[in-house]
Specification:
The structure holds two protein chains of two kinds. By secondary structure, chain A is of the alpha/beta class. In chain A, 33% of the residues lie in helices and 26% in strands.
Chain lengths: 506, 325
Amino acid sequence: MTKLLVQDVSRRYGAVQALDRVSLTIEAGRVHALMGENGAGKSTLIRLLAGLEAPDKGFLSIDGARLHDTNAQMMRQAGLRFIHQELHAVQGLSVAENMHLDHPYPTRLGLVHWGKLNQNAAQALGRLGLSHLDPRAPMSALGLGDQMLVRIAATLIRSDGAAPWLYVMDEPTAALTVQETDRLFAVIDGLVAQGAGILYVSHRMPEVMQLADQVSVLRDGRHVSTRALADTDERTIIEEMTGRPVSDLFPTKQAIDPQAPHVLTVDGLKAGPVKEARFSLRAGEVLGVAGLAGSGRGGLLRALIGDTPVEAGSARLHNKELGTSAADGWANGVAYVPRERRAQGLMLRRSITENITLPHLSALSRAGAFLDRGRHRRLVDRLNKHVGIKATSMHQSCHELSGGNQQKVLFARALAGDVQLLLLDEPTRGVDVGAKADLYGLIQQMSDTGLAVIIASSDLPELLGLAHRIAIMRDSTLAEIVDADGLTEADLLARFYHVDDGKAAA
Amino acid sequence: MISFLRRFSGLVGMLAVIAFFAINLPDTFLTLRNWLNIAQQVSMLTVIAATMTVVMVMGDFDLSVGSMASLAGVVAATLFVQDWSIASALAAAIMVGLAGGLFNGFIVSVLGILPFVATLATLTIFSGLAFFISDGRTVFGRDIPDAFGDFARQGPEIGMIGERALILPNLVIVAFVVVFVIWVVLEQTSFGRRLYAIGGNREASKLAGIKVVRLRLIAFAFTGVGAALAGLMYASRVASANPTQGDGLMLTAIAAVFLGMTLTRDGQPRVLATLAGVITLGVLDNGLTQMRVDSYVREILVGAIILAAVGFSAVGRGSLMRGPN
């Protein structure tokens, strides 16, 4: 079995010791999970393995042969391949052409041999059980998940150098749906069965528990532990990552006051991707929205903020019809944290202050139109005491913040106005454990102050840990609402697929 | 030090240009009269570039401003010929600018056509309209009321040099007022900050409750009015109107906004930076003309200087022309 040895590697950037004498052994034929919070040194380690950086001290070796003056070309030749969450696919080209982006196209008489090109692609796809993907289809016709699988299959196309034996996957599932993730895992199993090793970097505990043979934890640039999965558990890993005992990731749920008024009443709502939804929500209640990807989970939230036009039925907040645009939504006391914080949430190149005040500019202005910068600053400072964004100042540009802190900016934005209903779509996606716990704490505090909260999430433990009740979306319809007490992930999954054993909906 | 250089390199470059001309043209360049002259020369460009900034903060363009300027001039002149009063003819020309701007805004914002394509089309339409209305002829001489032509030549006296009175040209005052109004709108009102937000991330702005469609429409209307105003200023200055006289303004205005963007800390368009960009172009033109540089060579030099400034800044920041992310 091929082995990659990372030996006493250190790397410093300015004043930051990103890696401090880290040693790891990664073997072919197994899945090695690498975990750690943001800033733990995972990204630096990946950059070293990719040959993009050289270690200050220590070295890498493969099967006892020490690698000197590593560069990207050398690591490729040595059989390492890198799969990132952000794909660099060319949407306009075919699947087969995308698979040949870093291989020479097969030619005949100096011209592209299209038949051979498609055949190579089909063979590589077939080896991963992806024969259903057509090499001639345009890349843009595929979902993100399939695009990633295509990228993985592309590494199997033979070119010079050693066959790939180690795949470094950096948060590969961050943008994938549940089904896409399942297909990725099947492909990973296939790769491992064919003898490849995987270095799997992820924040997502359930994935690691499902996939990994071994788990290594980094914290503050240091190696904390490497254990076989059987010798560790979620709690241990989280404690090793954060360096402090976690009493519990989730705060204790407060019971809903049965006398609390109904804040939101949704009656036969049909809007955009949502065919029908009917429910009501009390002040202080947290409702989870669960379902398979494409079931209309996020669509329900988009309808409630007003971004999709209502075709039938109604949604009323305190007996006032919700409006027909997101502008109406915010004006009526609805706050929304969208699913894609980079694409839909933040102005990445703008300051924290600008991002937080965006929906509230009118309310914060003088004479209805003129900016009052002092008021902006005071509001943002007050909110930041509450949400705790780690930044040099509130003028810092959001693209420099970690995912968790970016999410806190969006939470601060949501809390800035007079909020009655808070809509959260995948609130902790791609956020590390420490920030996750902070966000959960915030959600809890908000519901304590009488806000009604709706959380759509693919993270089932999160829904079970936070929500009082969980609404199940099936085929774009809100099929049932169940009490979260005593519910398990398996129960939820069964309900997603409608393998109901006759239990009545609560 | 490096970051200081990067941050202020544009400003340093501007001062270097001024110093260069001051040394080479010691008797004429740094005089008040020359600077008033430059100010008058760039006043139309200032108005167009300032209103162009309004759409560019949203990441949009308006390529039709030059032909709108021509059209507005031609409309006013044609109405003068038909004995309209000056005020009503000017109002009508401004209304044409407003209508054209709203039309641009409608096809870009409501219909969703890319601004580059949409305003390229309206550039041609406005230009064709200007030719159609004027029948391709220049309106000049007795057809233009004296009061209209004199406006550009007159202005309050601000001093005497020897026997000659020094006046602050009216056109400069108009340009100054326009820049001030746009500065207030963009930097001091929530309306302006929303336009910047749209430029920062349009989808996120929409989901955060910004009325993106309406604001883009209004911003394009703003730019249309600015273009018409600049066209009228131009017509007043030359006391005539023809269907091509505004054509050169559009590219220069965009160049001025880009030059200005190299001066701002975050690489965003800002109206005062645009003004600095306009002045830089005006100074270059004035200085090179006084040094009797051939006008063709002058164009090559100005183009190369714009490229150098924007290129230097782009290298410093990674990319100037980046998308919302």
